Amino acid sequence: MVSVGAAARLTAYWKQNMLKYCKHCVMPDTKPDLLIDEEGVCNACRAYERRRERLDALEAKREIALICAMAINPPLSWPMMKDGPA
C-alpha cells in the first residue's frame, strides 16, 4: 500500500512530467519552439488567431469598398424602378 505522502509526491511528479497539449490543435509541448500558455493554447494557435482577426477586418473593408463602388456605379443588370416609389 502507498502512503498518503508518497501518493501526493507521485501525483505531483506525474502532473509535472506529463505532456501538455494545446486545447485547439492538440500539438504536444515536445514540439520545438511550441509554448503553451496558462490557458492551454499554443503560440502557433495564438498567432493564427491574431492573423485571422486581421484577415476578417481586411475582408470586411473590401466588402464595404465593393458595396460603395456598386452604389456609385450600379451594374446594368440591376432592376430599375420605372414608376418611382409607391
Could you characterize the architecture of this molecule?
- The protein has 86 residues and is an all-alpha fold.
- The chain has a domain at 43-69.
- The chain has helices at residues 4-17, 43-72.
- The radius of gyration is 28 Å and the shape is rod-shaped.
Core attributes:
single chain, 86 residues, mainly alpha, 2 helices, 51% helix, rod-shaped
Summarize the structure.
This protein has 86 residues and is an all-alpha fold.
| Mean pLDDT across all amino acids | 81
How many angstroms does the end-to-end distance come to? 89 Å
Structural class: mainly alpha
Helix % is 40-55%
Number of helices: 2
Largest sheet: none
Work out the radius of gyration: 28 Å
* Overall form: rod-shaped
Number of strands: 0
Order of helices and strands: HH
What oligomerization state is this entry in?
Answer: single chain
